Amino acid sequence: MTTPLSLAVVGHTNTGKTSLLRTLLRDSTFGEVKNAPSTTRHVEEALINDGDDSLVYLYDTPGLEDAGGVLDWLETHTSARDDGIERIQQFLSNHEAHHEFNQEAKVLRQVMQSDMAMYVIDAREPVLDKYKDELTILSWCAKPIMPVFNFTQNQDLTAWTNMLARRTLHVYA
Ligand SMILES: Nc1nc2c(ncn2[C@@H]2O[C@H](COP(=O)(O)OP(=O)(O)OP(=O)(O)O)[C@@H](O)[C@H]2O)c(=O)[nH]1
Ligand SMILES: [Mg+2]
User: Of ligand 1's atoms, which has the minimum distance to the CA of residue 38?
Assistant: First the structure.
């Protein structure tokens, strides 16, 4: 028996997180897929087995929508002298913040509980500040992050891979 890895699938809303889980699970009925933001509203667990062996727990998560708001909250209410995990924990235990940033809190809580995260990117999008803010708050959870590009057809990934490399994310799929 191996201990299953737990892997959170995270990213901006409508980037194809639930679709990626469907592909990995070979299950076209998993979750809800729609071309609209905020389709997935809760964390959903799925397990990949090899016979009797449980290999990977996958967690689908709601899309990040206001990482900038979360980062503003963290910068205002927590100390830069605390480490990222401490600051995220303060955010997660704050009732008001939890209420205002409900979806983001679900994502961060799941990343904190997982062994690693896949960060799904819509490669058609330019590298906007909101995506940088997402990677900043995710990095504070101190878990390995694997960037996964979606919608890659005819897209030049250079701007994205440069930005990821500056954040020591040198490997991507
Ligand atoms: N053509 C194409 N469409 C895709 C692909 N992946 C996702 N989509 C479409 O993109 C839209 C969003 O997909 P979802 O899987 O619901 O995205 P999500 O990230 O889970 O969205 P939220 O739960 O709202 O955060 C849907 O219309 C999907 O059919 C892909 O690889 N190719
Ligand atoms: Mg979804």
Answer: 24
